[in-house]
Amino acid sequence: MSRRLLFILVLITLLTSGCAVTEIAQDQFVSIKNYTMGEFYLDNRKYRDGIVHFQQETFENPSDPKAFYYLGRCYLAEDKNREGLIALKKAVQLDPGHADSHFWLGVAYAANGNPKAERKSYQTALAMDPDHVGALVYMGHNRLEAKDYRRALTYYNKALAEVPDEPQALFNRGLICRHYKRTPEEIQSWRVYLQNYPQGAHARQAAKYLNMYGVFDYRNHLIGIRSITLGKIRFEPLTAKLDKESRKTLDFLARVFEKQTRFELHVLAYQKNNKALAKARARSIRRYIMERNRRISSNRIKISWFDVPEKVVVGKKRFREDAAVNFFTLKRNV
User: pLDDT, tens digit, for every residue of 240-250?
Assistant: First the structure.
């Protein structure tokens, strides 16, 4: 049983038994109960159960703002945007001093296609709490959609000052720098984003943007039927000893490849003018993958090494990487 549910049961027991009722007013009890249950439904993604629960709560306790607040959020999570808007309007009406309610009302306005009212709700939330990260980020989205890039960037930077790894602000900051052709800032934005969020559709896009500038700190690889983003494989200087971050990268690669049983992995190591070092690094990678994942047989990993730079083609541009490792997969002949 969760602590929140246990807390509710204790309160209910106290209330129904008549013990300590004078210490807990009825409206306070209802508010605490609805907060606890609301967080439970949201944390566990039980949105439909939450809707049923808070529909009853709003009927029985129509003056409690938290019941309408959580009903609205559950509605939004189930894409019932009109119902969510109605519930959140009521929550704000009952408790106009709650910044989170204004923020989520803005989200509801956005879902219902009303950007003007959306922006006003975020402004109200920020007037109450200037450091409200959600309102800062979504105000940035609102301004970005309106092509007001300067203000959007200001809001994203404020959000990042509060939460440096906020994913949407990090990614959209890169897009805005790209719009303004601030290439050094854009490159740094994609690097920071990928350091924090190296996987997913946005990571693949960020890696593509980096590669367009000839920056190959991260690259996308088709491993079997899955496209993944991998950080550059690095070694300690002049050796074949993998550095710490590269070991983590290979751990992830091995987990993905292990499931692609119909494919073999090809590891290509490049080191300009040093074939012996390239060979040692290719072998080091294969050895590490096999030691960390015993389910991958040796005949599923093929290695090659070259004493020339890797030639990388990105669109119409051609680049050279003096020291590099690349991966691709081919179907096995079984």
Answer: 999 999 999 99
CB within 8 Å of 312: residues ≥ 6 apart:
211, 216, 318, 319, 320, 321, 324
Q: Return the ∠ at Cα 302 (arms to 297 and 306), rounded to 5°.
A: 150
Considering the domain 221-331 in this protein, what is its CATH number?
3.30.1330.60
For the cut 90, the answer to whether the pLDDT of residue 2 exceeds it is no
pTM: 0.87
Q: Is residue 67 classed as helix, strand or coil in its secondary structure?
A: helix
Residue pair 70/37 in contact (Cβ under 8 Å)? The answer is yes
The CATH number that domain 3-211 falls under is: 1.25.40.10
| Alpha-carbon span 151 to 69, nearest angstrom | 29
* The token pair that represents 101 in the structure block: 């309610």
Cβ distance 284 to 271 under 8 Å? no
Q: Does residue 182 sit in helix, strand or coil?
A: coil
Distance of alpha carbon 261 from the chain centroid: 29
Q: Spell out the domain ranges in the chain.
A: 3-211, 221-331
User: Each residue of 267-318: pLDDT tens digit?
Assistant: 999 999 999 999 999 999 999 999 988 889 889 999 999 999 999 999 999 9
